[in-house]
Specification:
InterPro entries: Glyc_kinase_flavodox-like_fold, Glycerate_kinase, Glycerate_kinase_RE-like, Glycerate_kinase_sf
Distance between the termini: 14 Å
CATH superfamily of the largest domain: Glycerate kinase, domain 2
GO molecular function: kinase activity
CATH class of the largest domain: Alpha Beta
Number of domains: 2
Family: Belongs to the glycerate kinase type-1 family.
Shape: elongated
Number of strands: 13
Strand order of the largest sheet: 3-4-5-6-9-10
Organism: Shewanella electrica
CATH architecture of the largest domain: Alpha-Beta Complex
Protein name: Glycerate kinase
CATH topology of the largest domain: Glycerate kinase, domain 2
Structural class: alpha/beta
Amino acid sequence: MKIVIAPDSFKESLSALEVAEVIAEAFAAHLPDAQFVKVPVADGGEGTVQSMVDATAGEIIHKTVTGPMGQPVAAHYGILGADSSFGANTAVIEMAAASGLHHVVAAERNPLLSTSYGTGELIADALDRGIRHIILGLGGSATNDGGAGMIQALGYQLLDKHGQALPAGGAALAELHHINVVRQHPALAECTFDVACDVDNPLCGERGASAIFGPQKGATADMVKQLDAALAHFAQVAEQQGFRDAQHTAGAGAAGGMGFGVMTFLEGTLRPGVDIVMQAVGLADKVAGADLVITGEGRIDGQTVFGKTPMGVLRVAKQQQVPVIGIAGCLGEGADKMLEQGMCAIFDIIPSASDLAQALANARPNLHRAASNIAAVWRLGLQHH
């Protein structure tokens, strides 16, 4: 019997690999002869780097880079191992690691000035190590600069009408006159970018980066107008210089316009994060011939069907007609939508009323108990089959 265990992390308590290990241990006690294939996965959001490194036997690279407000921050990215279907010269970078909102205390957030330069530094470091395929996860950013800081770190010069380099931040883009590519990182021409993006916002306008995501980064109504106009000008100058016109493309507004930046200047392809991760870890090949797939995440609710990890795993397993069971830290409103999509059953792990801190602290024993009970019922079904 082959059982594939492909969960996301239970945020703030267990990594995806830890979740898989606990479930495998609980099942093995009831099904000692079964083969367990542990595949930690993610949906492109927080925790994606760790999950993909764990799933492919890769490594984490630590680097101090420029934070969103210009301060040094400790960041990291992953280089995938030989178990990756993309091969071993692939890096996975979460934008939030270098340019995330968590790096800036609330009182100091200012999207007029924040920069994505640190994300560019991580990309440059990967290129310097010979990496030629980069998976970039968007989301959680403190920036609204259209990826300007990122490309500056990669050698692009953004110049005003006097030929002076623009300062950091989205507001400065209003003064952009010319984009100089002479000094761009030479390896960019050989590198492909897959961009994990789960929003479809354009760069500008009422659904654009500034209007929709600016306020959570500290933007006032006046700042939103200023930033929106600056990004529109950025796109106009780029188009005039022959770069791809991506400002209206779905996802251009993601992560403060970083979607626009990677499509326009790095020829990146935007795809749902869960699809990129499933491909990278080779989930379809690992599910082949399985008798059961188990997936899960910290919370399964009505949003899970919209591209979260359990939905991605379910899609892969359904194509091969393998039954899927979901295990979650808790079940929220609309969780039954996963049953409507074809999941066989969903379970939460909380055995009794408890507060959040208690639930997080007891995640491991609670998960083990729940998985053990599920395994016992599964074995019972096999005995009476």
